[in-house]
Amino acid sequence: MFDLEEELKKLPAKPGVYLMHSKNDEIIYVGKAISLKNRVRQYFQAGTKKTAKIQKMVSQIAYFEYIITDSELEALVLECNLIKEHQPKYNTMLKDDKSYPFIRVTLEEDFPRVQFCRRMKKDKNKYFGPYTSSKAVKETIELLQKIYQIRTCNKVLPKDIGKTRACLNYHMKQCKAPCQGYVSKEEYQESVGEVMDFLNGNYKKVTDRLYAKMMEKSEQLEFEEAMEYRDLLNSVQQIAQKQRITNQDLEDRDIIAMAASREEAVVSIFFVREGKLLGREHFHMERTIDETRSKIITEFLKQYYSGTPFIPREIVLQEEPVEEEVGAIVEWLSARREHKVVITVPKKGEKRRLVSLAEENASMILAQDVEKIKRQQQRTVLAVEEIRDLLKIPSANRMEAFDISNISGFQTVASMVVFEGGLPKKSDYRKFKIRGVQGPDDYQSMKEALERRFLRGISEEEKTSFSRLPDLLLMDGGKGQVNVALKVLEELHLNIPVCGMVKDDKHRTRGLYFENEEISFPPKSEAFLLLTRIQDEAHRFAIEYHKLLRSKNQIHSVLDDIPGVGPARRKALMRHFKDIERMKQASVEELEMVEGITWAVAENIYDFFHEKPDSGRHIGKPYDKI
Known about the structure:
Layout: H1 4-10, E1 16-21, E2 27-33, H2 36-44, H3 52-59, E3 63-68, H4 72-86, E4 102-105, E5 114-117, E6 126-128, H5 134-148, H6 168-171, H7 185-199, H8 204-219, H9 223-239, E7 253-260, E8 264-273, E9 276-286, H10 293-307, E10 314-317, H11 323-337, E11 342-344, H12 349-391, E12 398-407, E13 410-420, E14 423-424, E15 430-433, H13 442-459, E16 472-475, H14 479-491, E17 498-503, E18 509-514, E19 517-520, H15 526-559, H16 567-577, H17 580-585, H18 588-592, H19 599-609
Helix pairs in contact: 5-9, 8-9, 10-11, 12-15, 13-14
């Protein structure tokens, strides 16, 4: 169990992000803190004044976790990434999906510009950030343009050289006028290089110059100009804060580091997706005295990536894996991903700092949570052993539970959840859309799902999640569902114990139906709690899949009947308008503004929602009046 008082005592006085979880493991709130120790404790102190919303949120917190960072700025950006990823219900969500600003240097141009932007793209340009202050970013861009005389115009150079007169910026000595050919490409690129040096952190030269100017103007009693230099200096110092929670290459990578004692090891893995750090997990591993750190990392790679469905392009490690195994691991991971996978061990730079951050988190967990992890493992092992002994079966290590979900037979689906060693193994979860059953027939639906699951398991020669048969099969139902499962297994000549999860009047598991009798568990036993978690998880997984299919079907029924609207345009429309009602209210001109929507398709959409399929209007954008 999560001991709140003990966990509050363990909080570090460091900056970071905290995640509040409900009893269903849902993330309900994400926050940042300069000091995790002070901030998180405030939620649970009786004397602290709280809003009604926070009081309700605190009442639903089952446990919390946290990620430490190097600075408040990094905590701020990580908080933003996690909120966008998980959309916790107690966080205030930005309706316009506002993001942090970047500075873009347009290296794809012969005469680059320095620009403000809010999105990184995979192009030849160079991006710096994200930053937390839009004002400071804009002021810094303005400062760089003044110091290095970088152009701000939209002219296509060198094609447009000499076509127009030099602009006001040239006469104010804030641009070298490449549009007039007054500066060579090489000389201009040299200035751009100095701009990028500054943005990479080599800003001492500029700050020294600004400080000297500020003091000079102050000594000359020109205080207004001195204040201008002071404000510019503050902006530079603000923009110069280094943070690396977001990486500009937009790549997917895992950052792996560990901390170890003589007998224990904790491995932390940070997940970077599209350049953004979106979360982390940690794993406890037993260690013998003679095991090297390289060996532990190697074993972790093999065990972790054999069970996870997603393989990133790059895996960044704290330690080199065992030399003779590196080649085989890279080849295996590349085959699983179907693209080349790179394993790197950085010695310096941004990747090295992220590795250090993962190592720091692993060290903290090793120091604070090893006993908790051990207790949790003992509880799950105890629960599995209880189930095994009460059913008198050889093993209950791998349990598969099935559930059916439908509404009056509409869009019937089956879910399969897998627990190994008493813990959910989500990489092995599977969903089945029932194809051969019409109407609300749960027995035939379950029969189809089980046949598909086991027939595929028998036919697959490679060792996959399907080919691994369960030690125990759990059905979300009583005698009828069990008999369906037993018949399927008999026809396939498989010998697997089957239980039905018997429920009480409140739809909670009260026991197991096994070999024609009901077996009860003590209500507070570890076995009872584990079976309840399995039943809830199977039900949740089936319901979520059914909701997804219903949602897709509803969107299909409305949009896919419109001529010219396919999957890509449907997605663009929903992303732009958020819901169908807003789309109905849009004009043809507003519809045409959506990416990929032509004037003709916009008219089709408008007519569809306004019941004018044969309006006779001209299809095609009208010419402007001459």
